[in-house]
Amino acid sequence: MSRADHMDVAAYALGVLDAQDAERFEEHLATCWACAAELETMVPVVGLLSGIDGEAMAALEQTHTDPALLDRTLMAVRRDRRRTRVRQLLATAAAVVVFGGVSAAAAGMLGDEPAPPQAVPTPGAPTVAPSGEPGDPNDPGVGGKEAIEGDQHNATDPATGVQTTMWLARKEYGTQIAVQLSRLPGPRTCRLVMVRKNATSEVVSSWSVPVGGYGTNQNQLPLELTITTSTPVRDMDKLQVQSVDANGVASPLVTVDGI
């Protein structure tokens, strides 16, 4: 029993031995349990190895004795492996392109879908005057307009007919005063005077009224101002809008009492 007999297991399993060698190996197989066991383990993979032809196997056998043939064989194997890697890379790239196209199409389909409805904020309720009087429909905060911060005070002067709504908001620095004036004819110069509970007063702001006035037949839009003062609300007694003539003499137009 020679070493070559043991080396013929794979060749026999693949069916590449000629008739004489196959017969000789079968005679050896009948008395060699090691080869029989090895052949049994190779049976499941014979189908995978069936793609190797006899010429390739013979060439492989010759590489043991022919160094030049071994080099050529190794070069051929390397080229084949490179081609295989290139094919794998191309296949991977193609798969990525196809997947990317499918993803883009799916994103496009999703993009065509209508956006879910969003909640619309409910407009804030208008501030109610402390006096209990109904709010003026033209006031900010009424009829869907945004509410103004602070306590609301309404007043109409019976002599001049000027109307005002003022909102007083307590702040750390003092008081924020939002003023709305209508039925205010022009041209004239006006000012807002704050009278404190200690009988002192302060000119909080001043402005000019054009010819058309504010909240009049010529200009229906009211005048809206936002003013700040360092005086807190608790120290205020009243707020008065005054008209100032060319000589600096002031006369009241409308007064908000009982702040």
Automatic annotation (TrEMBL):
Matching Pfam families: zf-HC2 (PF13490)
Transmembrane segments: 89-110
Putative zinc-finger domain residues: 10-35
UniProtKB keywords: Membrane, Metal-binding, Transcription, Transcription regulation, Transmembrane, Transmembrane helix, Zinc, Zinc-finger
GO molecular function, one term: zinc ion binding
Residue ranges with Pro residues bias: 114-124
Region (Disordered): 113-159
Highest taxon in the source lineage: Bacteria
Protein name: Putative zinc-finger
Source organism of this protein record: Micromonospora marina
